[in-house]
Amino acid sequence: MNGEDAALTLSSAVETLPGVGEARTKALARLNLHTAEDLLRYFPRDYEDRRKCCSIQEAPGQGAVCIWGMVAESPRCSRIRKGLELTKVKVVDDTSAMTVTFFNQSYIHQVLQPGERYLFFGRAEREGSWVQMSNPVFEREDRVQFLGRLMPIYPLTAGISNRLLAGLIRRCIDPCAGQIPELLPSEIRGEYQLAQSEFSYRNIHFPADENALALARRRLIFEELFYLSCGLTLLRSRRTGAEGPVCAALSLAPFYDLLPFSLTDAQRRTMEEAAADLAQVRPMNRLVQGDVGSGKTVVAAACAWIAHQSGWQSALMAPTELLAAQHVRSLAPLLAPAGMKVGLLTGSMTAKEKRTVRAALAAGEIHLLIGTHALLSQGVDFARLGLVITDEQHRFGVDQRAALSAKGIHGVPNVLVMSATPIPRTLALIIYGDLDVSVIDTLPPGRTPIETYVIGEDKRQRMYQFVRRQVRAGRQVYLVCPAVEEHTGQQQDLKAVTAYTQELQTQVFPDLRVALVHGKLRPKEKDFVMSAFAAGEIDILVSTTVIEVGVDVPNAALMVVENAERFGLSQLHQLRGRVGRGPYQSYCILMSNARNQESIARLKVLKETTDGFRIAEEDLKLRGPGDFFGQRQHGLPQLQIADLAGDTRILKQAQEAAQQLLAQDPDLSQPAHQPLLDRVRRLFAENPDIFN
Q: Which of 93, 102, 182, 407 places its Cα 20 to 30 Å from the Cα of 421?
């Protein structure tokens, strides 16, 4: 370590490092790398084993190896054709010779010096006694850094190579790894056998061996999940001290009498859990999860009914105007016999209509207001807001939920959030942070299971014939594509929704009514098409996943998903839930060009089960948590190294450790725990006021 490196601290800016100018500083900023500490906390996504060394004669002919060799002569450059230059160099060792070839790297002849020894890493191809390496990584004997070891592979951006990033991190490791404070209490490190902080940061980037890497990973995963568990517990305890609008402890029997159908046990259980919450001084904060059609809306209606009986108003925020209008159509007649007035407020209403609704709301004449983001706008004032309900919670950030909650002037309102995205309970606690979780895990009786098929491109014409038969029988069809515009390169096989619709309209189904809806349309255009489909004026609706959360169309009996392998299982399950809402036998056809067995086996999970939670567990195992974190929850942390699919055992240990610590120091106010509290705040940094 030279004197310049010794002066580095955790707060040293990346532009102070050698080789980092203005352009690289901007590129590193795209990865959120601004300081030496950011670099140390930027963990590898994978490792390449560069430890296997052999002589030229021993080169195995398959797999990458390291070979020590001396450059025997000056590199020779030749231009094969326009756009292709070859640089060849002869390399020798005590056993044999090999040819090393570089493509379009003419600078090599200035770098590789005859008579110097280098370590080359790459695939050594053998034909008889002749050995060749193409485009190997190499380092001079006196400057070996990244060969002969486990090499970290990092997530990158344009302008930043893996070698450059590894080099910058390597430069910061020696002076800075020991500066990262040890925040885990020694008794927790001892009980759970965790490595020290400095050892972990050194070995997560440049591990001495697999064992050192395993120790480093376990420590850093535990640490991250420990901070997360502390933060979520503090969020819940913060709620304990708050006072909300208290509702009467009522019998739900009069509400059940309003219903024209019988409830499932799961619905009753969820309603009772919510009713118990509403009768507490502490405001309710409950997530209701259930598959499409499991009856979450009636749980929301029960909560609004309880709030009304106790003199409180309720607000229900839906992600689309269509869904908001659908809720009004189903809830207004249901709640009217109980003397409840249901109102609607959306962005597309006229100024006069909005004024009328706002005035009635402020006067307390509307008991349940249903709407879109328009509910958040200024001038929407409730007389006595006691309950906030959000539908399809994964569409809203935590801050939006908070904005609606802020309209409760009589204390923090009770909050009920509903989601049809089945999420494993462990993951739900991470994503939704401070919410209690109810699961409606049974569907109402009488729903016909949707028949699901996975087919390849060779069955396309038969699929089109089946679509035609469904339309002839009076049914309607969804046809979902993963892309909006034509793509180039690797994605050119995707069914681009615009071009595909045109093909269907002009060539495949010229005699049928085919329409298009996608996320890039204006909301009014989107609503117009969806309303026409709901009214039966469209036979085939070609769409992107914009219909994943959509209007209820009982006549739609067939869902076709193109390039199904591109979707997560949970997303496909959501799409499948768009059909099967009426009395007709419904079908879901998953079209796939996938050739690898893993992709096909993944899709067959949907064929085997309609249990959204089992599907979600499979998705978590197969794809990791990315599918569930698709829309970031503002204010909740993004994990750097923990994998919620594979690290559930460590998560459990971290939660236990957090509970032990917080039992001794409930708000981490002891001076010894102040740095730990600061670190927890940093993890939740997107919402710095979250613990205030």
A: 407
In this structure, what DSSP letter does residue 114 have? T
Non-local CB neighbours of 587 within 8 Å, separated by 6+ positions: 450, 451, 452, 453, 466, 470, 557, 558, 559, 579
Q: For residues 392 and 387, give the distance between their C-alpha atoms in angstroms, rounded to a whole number.
A: 16
Question: What's the rounded Cα separation, in Å, for the pair 1 and 308?
Answer: 70
Measure the CA–CA gap between 563 and 599, rounded to whole angstroms: 11
Report whether 624 contacts 207 (CB < 8 A).
no
605-637: burial string, b at 16+ Cβ within 10 Å, e else: bbeeebbbbbbbbbbbebeebebbbeeebebbb
Alpha helices of 291-437 — where are they, by DSSP H? 296-309, 321-335, 351-362, 398-405, 425-432
Q: What is the pLDDT of residue 496?
A: 72
The whole-angstrom separation of Cα 549 and Cα 391 is 10
**Token pair 């209403």: residue:** 349
Dist. CA 248–CA 404, nearest whole Å: 23
Q: How many CB atoms lie within 10 A of CB 351?
A: 7
Q: Could you tell me if 42 and 20 are in contact, meaning their C-beta atoms sit under 8 angstroms apart?
A: no
Per the CB < 8 A criterion, the answer to whether 47 and 150 are in contact is: yes
- pLDDT tens digit sequence for 552-601: 788 999 999 998 888 878 788 888 888 888 888 999 999 988 776 667 77
Q: How far apart are CA 37 and CA 24, in angstroms?
A: 17
CB count, 10 Å around CB of 684?
Answer: 21
Give the max Cα distance, the chain: 95
Work out the angle between the directed axes of helices 612-623 and 569-576 (0-180°, nearest 10).
150
pLDDT per position as a tens digit, 462-484: 999 999 999 999 999 999 987 65
Separation of CA 136 from chain center: 36
Q: In the predicted model, is pLDDT for residue 5 greater than 60? A: yes
Alpha carbon distance, N-terminus to C-terminus of the chain? 43
Residue 143 tokens read as 């400057």
Detail the DSSP E strand segments found in 528-676: 540-543, 556-561, 587-591
Residues 6+ apart with CB under 8 A from 265: 442
CA-based nearest residue to 406, from 385, 427, 429: 385
Q: Return the sign of the alpha-carbon dihedral for residues 312, 317, 318, 323.
A: positive
What the block records as the tokens of 380 is 């929407």
Whether pTM exceeds 0.70: no
Report residue 213 CA to chain centroid gap: 26
Q: Which of 379, 420, 421, 402 has its CA nearest to residue 283? A: 402
Are 227 and 215 in contact by the 8 Å Cβ rule? The answer is no
Distance of CA 604 to the CA centre of its chain: 22
Kindly give, in sequence order, each residue whose CB lies less than 8 Å from that of residue 210, ignoring residues fewer than 6 positions away.
150
Which pLDDT tens digit goes with each residue over 44-103?
Answer: 988 989 999 999 988 887 788 999 999 999 999 988 888 788 999 999 999 999 999 999
d(CA 74, CA 71): 8
Residue whose tokens read 């204010």: 635
Higher-confidence residue: 488 or 160? 160
DSSP string across 667-682: T--SGGGHHHHHHHHH
Backbone angles phi, psi at 436, to 5 degrees: -80, 150
- Phi and psi (nearest 5°) for 342? -105, 130
Q: Is a pLDDT exceeding 90 seen at residue 531?
A: no
Strands 64-71 vs 84-92: parallel, antiparallel or unpaired: antiparallel
**Phi and psi, residue 480, nearest 5°:** -105, 135
Determine the Cα–Cα distance for residues 502 and 201; give it in Å rounded to an integer: 55
